[in-house]
Amino acid sequence: MSNQILLFSAILFALVLFIAWSLMNSKSYFLKVLFDMHVRYIGHIKEWTGLRDGRVYMVLFAQVAAALMLVLVIYFVLRNIFLVLLIGYFIFKAPLWISNYKRKRRLNSIEYELPTALTVIASSLTAGVSLSIALQSYSKESNSPLASEFAHVIRLQKVGVDFETAIEEVGKRIDLVDFQLLVMTFRISKSVGGNLSETLMSLSNTIQQKLTIEGKIRSLTAQGKMQGWVMICLPALVGVALFFIQPEEMGLLLTTLYGKIVLFICLTMAYIGHKVIQKILAIDV
């Protein structure tokens, strides 16, 4: 117990010294990285909650306070500082992971719906209706995320915002290359004219072919992704099984200092290996 407290105090003291040195050094790379992490995390909280201004920092403070309280409770139960820090990290990052997961699902839904929506809008333009009416008609007939974004464009136009500004505002909310192409197509059509229906049909076919290629790539890389998850889960399952089979020997990983260091190194290497596999298989089309 005393060794754990001394080790934790030494790590905390070294961290404080490093932060103090970084604050004194105006060109510190650490401060730049820390500031960039802060900006990205605040941006994720804004997307997750929809809040702005100082209320975002209130959410951040509540999240940090809740994580610290849970970490203290877990520490008094487990009495293991390394395991407590690991659990605290997962508790702190859980809301961000949930937000990213929901955001990714929404963007995937918009991406797969985009070719169909462009085909419907192009058909409406061919029938002789205006672009605003075509977008409004599609947003009323569908309850999908893309339809809600088009409905947002119509609402902005009703309060006096011009079409180009409205569609650019929606483009900032949807971080997809395909949707940025659509925004550019609308802007060019409004500026120089042309047959917008044919352009939208061509864009729809291009996006559909791109989605088909991406689907083939996902099917070919599915085995590698599964290997990454197996590399993470299998050692953990084997370790739990060994804890039940040989509790005294495996208990040394949690009760001795060297065991905790070995456990921490194993978890870190497994995490790095999983990330490397994901990076290798992240093929962009």
Radius of gyration: 26 Å
Please report the distance between the alpha carbons of the first and last residues: 53 Å
CATH class group of the largest domain = Mainly Alpha
Shape: elongated
Task: Please report the total strand number as a whole number.
Answer: 0
Q: How many domains in all?
A: 3
Count of helical regions = 12
Strand content: under 5%
Alpha-beta classification: mainly alpha
Helix content, binned percent = over 70%
Order of helices and strands: HHHHHHHHHHHH
**Biggest sheet architecture:** none
| Global mean pLDDT | 76
CATH topology of the largest domain: Receptor-associated Protein
Low-confidence stretches: none
- CATH-defined superfamily of the largest domain: Type II secretion system (T2SS), domain F
Based on the structure given, which CATH architecture of the largest domain is correct? Up-down Bundle
Strands, helices and their partners?
Elements: H1 2-24, H2 29-49, H3 55-78, H4 81-126, H5 131-141, H6 145-158, H7 163-173, H8 177-192, H9 196-245, H10 247-250, H11 252-255, H12 257-281
Key features of this structure:
single chain, 285 residues, mainly alpha, Receptor-associated Protein, 3 domains, 12 helices, 0% strand
